[in-house]
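Researcher: Go.
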Amino acid sequence: MLLSDGTGLSRLAKVLAGVALIGALAGCQVRPLYSTPSGTEGKLASISLSEAGDRVEQQVRNDLIFLFTGGAGEAQNAVYHLEMDVTSKTVGVLNDVRTDTARSGRVTVTADYNLTKSDSGETIASGKRSAVAMVDFPSQEFAKLRAIRDAENRGARELAELIRADVASALARR
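Model: Structure:
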């Protein structure tokens, strides 16, 4: 009688779905990514970075050094080396029809990176990441240059955080 009215069948389906969900979650492993200095945090602190070629690349480099070491400075005895190539591009996206000048724009900061082991040259992680920062262009030229520089700095900071997450994830798997 219980299965004939349909309520028992839906209850049975709910119980089976709950058991299947518990079984699936039992295989999950939750642990902190940056747990101990001997773990990922210690590995991040032992990364040296390539020299910068321009201002935006230097900003990304500085942000990464701070993120990797927590403000302690660049690693002296580096176990890993991060080679980066950073580019920045500014594009106007909203043009004023009367004056044919851009009123706002987008700054895209892109990095190609390659993390290798210093002693063997083995590639640990590599990739390409980009970050976008929006910018308003004022009518004064100096203010416009300053706004673009601020957008480049914001993009560089966001890009450094993305690269740090990628590198930390790769080192956590080792």
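Model: The longest strand covers residues 80-96.
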